[in-house]
Amino acid sequence: MSDRVSAHVKPLLLMLTLLVSGASVMVIEILGTRILGPFYGLGLQVWAALITVALVALALGYWIGGVVADRRASPTLFHSLVALAGVATLLVRLIASPALEAFAGLGIEAGALASALVIFGPSLFLLGTLTPIAVRLHPGHAAKTGSTVGRLYAVSTIGSVIGALLAGFVLVPILPISGIFQVVAAALGVVGLLGLTLRSRAAAGGALALLVVAAVPGRAAPDVPARIELVRDEQTFYGRIQTIDSELNSERYMLLDGLIHTHIRIDDEDDPIQCQYVRKAALVPVLMPEARRFLVIGCGGGAMLRLLAAEGRTFDVVDIDEAVMRAAREDFGADVEGAQFHAEDGRVFLRGRGPWDAILLDVVSTEVMPEHLCTVEFLGEAKEKLVSGGVLLMNTIGSPGGRVLDSFAATLDAAFGHRVGFGAHVRETSMNVVWLATDREIPLRGFPRLDLYSVYKPGDKGIVLRDDYNPVNAWNAGLGLAMRRELHTIFGRGVFEAR
User: Fold this and answer.
1) Got the DSSP string for 370-404?
2) Are 279 and 306 in contact (CB under 8 A)?
3) Are residues 109 and 242 located together in one domain of the fold?
4) Would the pTM count as exceeding 0.85?
5) pLDDT at 200 over 70
6) Same domain flag for 247 and 192
7) What is the mean predicted confidence (pLDDT) over 133-149?
8) What are the Cα distances from residue 113, in Å, to 104, 117, 120, 426, 472?
9) Pair 198, 284 in one domain
10) d(CA 10, CA 70)
11) Is there a contact between 75 and 195 (Cβ–Cβ < 8 Å)?
């Protein structure tokens, strides 16, 4: 191939390659949490770990790529690095499970950092080397260095925009996470092989062989145990939804991002709701017998709906994820009479509607609670949407006697003035507390005696949680990691690994 032809082809191929590499970086960054999540959750620490690794790997790639560009830049080397980045991305599914298992004992921060470095560091480093070398290989770099650098980085950034849009709005509902990484690897492999074919058929053949070898499954995901039936396994824009039937206790579970949110008996149609904290919702009509109109923020499996459903009662059910509400209706019988389902953020929905007799706020998980739905500002907005004497029920999780539960109590006191908490699922390191709050005195003598035994008395370690400062997710981070380890033992890790 003549130098003249090469000069005409090279700029277009460089830009195509940088477009694909930029998109690949963003897809890996955004969807990397879906691979780390089953072991470490989707809290702020995991996002920070992944972003840190991405920035460090890219920075090293830019630096080493710049050194290579000055010493031995060549089209063959450039396209070989692209193909190698495709191989590294393809190997993510192979190395993810052993890496996650190896570092699980380090805790959330160190474990997530180490896992992200091993799983995603190689591919992101290789992708980082490309732009400096591309600048050197561009035919106009000597005469117009500034415009050449600006143009190529702009193309790479446009690729990242495309990757963000694809990852955030298109790919997740269509393909499993492993499939998306395979698509990214294939895209990198195609552009790398295209460039190598134009230069050296031998090099292209070697790269193709390497990609084929990397594509051969080297470690199958652990099987789901025979005692477990995976009824639903769905990735959505907001997370992963799983419905699991367990023969061990004849229960059906809803797992959101690897943590239990609902469980019901599947062998007792007359009394399927056995979850301790859900059954506390029956205390709302005890405190306000005339309650007819309910707002439910956080659908989960819809067990509270089934518990409270009665003639004359209506429910506005709000969840940000339509797929969660669909699973609740189809798998857990939540499509009760009088219920209307709304796919919207709870705080946004609250502002434009009401009033209600009671608001049931159940958006907590062991490690991540939407922070804007548990502050004094939000609870004040909720109080304004209740009728006089209306009741707010709020499910929370924290360590017994710890500052998280104390802070929920202090925040409810600041917003409502009157509240009482009932403990459930009490363990050595964690428990649920279901709070009832209202604008009037709460007569404890009216509650069933059995529930009075579970009244929770908070201490004075808490703070009033505000939109500007709400650290409960950071404080609860360790609880989620412990719970995940226990669930991996109960259900088997094969249930939780990204697919």
Assistant:
1) -GGGSSHHHHHHHHHTEEEEEEEEEEEEE-TTSHH
2) no
3) no
4) no
5) no
6) no
7) 74
8) 11, 6, 10, 31, 21
9) no
10) 18
11) yes
